[in-house]
Design brief:
Blueprint: H1 2-17, E1 18-20, E2 27-30, E3 36-37, H2 39-46, H3 53-72, H4 77-89, H5 93-106, H6 111-123, H7 127-141, H8 165-179, H9 183-194, H10 200-216, H11 220-228, H12 239-251, H13 257-264, H14 268-280, H15 284-295, H16 303-315
Antiparallel strand pairs: 1-2, 2-3
Helix pairs in contact: 1-15, 3-4, 4-5, 4-6, 5-6, 6-7, 6-8, 7-8, 8-9, 8-10, 9-10, 10-11, 10-12, 12-14, 14-15, 14-16, 15-16
Amino acid sequence: MKNTTSTIAFLFFLTSCIETSPSSGKRIISNQNNNPVTSFEVDKELENKALSKTDRASAERVLLKAEKAFNENPENEFNIINYGIKLANLGRFKEAISLYDEGLTKFPESHKIRRYIGQQYLTTRQFDKAISSLSEAITYANDSPPIIETENSYLKYNRKTIYNVKFNIWYYLGLSYYMKGNYDKAISSFRKCEKYTNNNDLKVVITNWLYNAFAKIGNLDLAEAEIMSIPTNMRLVEIKSRKYHDLIMLYRGLVTPSILTKRNGIDADVGYGIGNYYLINGKVENAISAFNRVISTEQQERIGYIAIEAELAVLLGSQISDS
């Protein structure tokens, strides 16, 4: 009875806090006065929540170097992208988007700038704009090589770069469709990612989202086939990839949600995976409880948190428009 009461109270709270805009596909969150908060106001809220104090201090030092390089040569595409990344690392997404918009006036056919602006539109819940920018990035990328991204690291444990531009274009496009509930297009985009999946980390990342997307359309056979391709032991570079590997082991029934929570804490990406695992298995109250634990934290810039918002919008009967 206690769990049921908590669930009802939680749903009532969410009903007053989460809305969607059917015309723009943009997630709109209401503040305590029930006034809509725009995506850029969400961006302002994210600014002081993205990093721990230690990581923030490190990121701020790196930002100063990137800003200096940009000011010395603002016509350099790398400097524009690098400066924008460092702004985004601090949660200053609005400034990063403005910088990239200005960069496109200098490099109007840049697929690399569009890749990053698309990511920031996704982070600030502007899904239709993300889809538009990333689709344009695909067009302009055309036959260009899948350049390794070397400017996205600022933490000591993230020394080895594993991503490439073309993977990330398709990846964030797939995520943008996923957040809008367009799972067929998400699957199509994630499939395109596989062409640029050249290491274990990328394989684990994309397999996790393919499993989720196939499960959403009710194709559990294909969903299971995806995760069965991932061995129980893999050499992985990134912490994020290890978390997705943990989730894949959960989906396969090799670990339990409690083990993952103990191992990863209240992590947004893991929390979304656990909640989605419960949904797939028909345990809605358990899913809402898992989502609730993440919603109460300050991880709004994380993909898992954004996915939880989208999931709760569906559970509450809201809708997100399709492009």
